[in-house]
Amino acid sequence: MVTWRFEWLGNLCGMKLKGVGKSIESALLDCLELLYAGVSEKEARRQFFKLLSRSVGSIGAGLETADPYTGALIRPVRDYEVYVTQPDVVEKYVQVAHMNPFKKVFREPPTPGMVGFGSDRVDLNSLRDTAYWRSFLGPLGLKYPARIVPAAANDLITIIHFAKEEANGDFDHAERQFLARVAPHLTNFFTLDSYVDTLTLQRDTAWASLDALPYGIVLLDRDGRIQFTNLRADAIFEERDGLVITSVGHSASAMEIPRPLQAAIRGLLAEGTAVRVEAPVVHREFVIERPSGRRAYRVLVSPLMASESQGGGSAAICILIHDPDAPLEKELGRLRSAYGLTQGEAEVALGLCCGMTLEECAVETRRAVSTARTLLKRALYKTGARQQSELVSLIMSDVLAMRSTR
């Protein structure tokens, strides 16, 4: 048995793919290098499908999502830069996909990694009597299809289609072995791709959340470069009223800010901003007067939690800027409408979202602390929140939803 296995592996390595003139192992390494690079590089992904198609003599590699039981086409997946040698073949297939007799190969529930060849499942001689042949395969000179199912779920499957021209013959043994070897890697790729999409969505949601905040946010990396500014910070800097920044990617020295604030940032950077979960976080607060005479900015500088795996490009310092004169009429109006809050209740609730204490909210809105406390209790009751932190979380989610629909 062992001898036979080594003999079989030797034959496998010796078989060549006519499309690229390479052994299965050599072509597989070339394809896999592009495939896994394609998780983050769209061009590598496109080149992978191109090389995969050439390796098995297919006119292309067409991706689609379909119903796992009826085979009905849900949608062609165009994000992968599907490679085809014949023009308009994808558009033509979409029009006739419902006629495809090869859909019937999925009598059993499809599973990730499944590979199927049309000539094994369908009588190719009877194809000429089908509408699918007359409207799609025949005019394009195609006859021999194959497919890989890299991903499958209860409600849909992802299919990669291949097709060879009738003049070039069916998929030979080497080409079939090659697709069988690629199939599990395609399953891995789609799993990784889904994971990356989830991370990207989480990242974009996080940036959108920062943009939705009613105060300015500036993130600096460990080298002191400005990594991110949210929309409110951009608006503050554009006013050039005591705080100015040139652009993201520049050093924090590009910010025209008072010396004490600059010194605080330099001090945090010199300390390495190595804040751990168990260590107390020291926030540094500043009041920055404005040349215009408007009420001063309140600025909070804080180191961010660090981990050993974070590199120099990770956000290390957060600068929070509160503009007491920033127009918040839309946010106040939305809160009043959504929860039935009074103007005073909405002002206290939104002030808490801006990082102020209840006492500071009272001063900011020119009310007694006891009055602000009463307004907070009413806001908690009307929103259904049980405590102040829950109220803030609820309101910030509402502000984000409001701004994302603009």
Largest sheet: 6 strands, antiparallel
Overall mean confidence score, pLDDT: 76
Number of helices: 14
Task: Report how far the terminal alpha carbons are from each other.
Answer: 68 Å
So what's the overall shape? elongated
Order of helices and strands: HEEHHEEEHEHHEEHEEHHEEEHHHHH
Number of strands: 13
Unreliable sequence segments: 1-12, 273-279, 307-312
Helix content: 40-55%
What proportion strand?
15-25%
Helix and strand content put the structural class at alpha+beta
Q: Which radius of gyration do the C-alpha atoms yield?
A: 31 Å
Could you write a compact summary of the structure shown?
The protein is α+β, with helices and mostly antiparallel strands and 406 residues long. It is built from 14 helices and 13 strands.
Describe the structure.
This protein has 406 residues and is α+β, with helices and mostly antiparallel strands. The chain is 46% helix and 17% strand. It is built from 14 helices and 13 strands. The strands form three sheets. Strands 3, 4, 5, 6, 7 and 8 form a six-stranded antiparallel sheet that branches. Strands 10-9-13-12-11 form a five-stranded antiparallel sheet. It has a two-stranded antiparallel sheet with strand order 1-2.
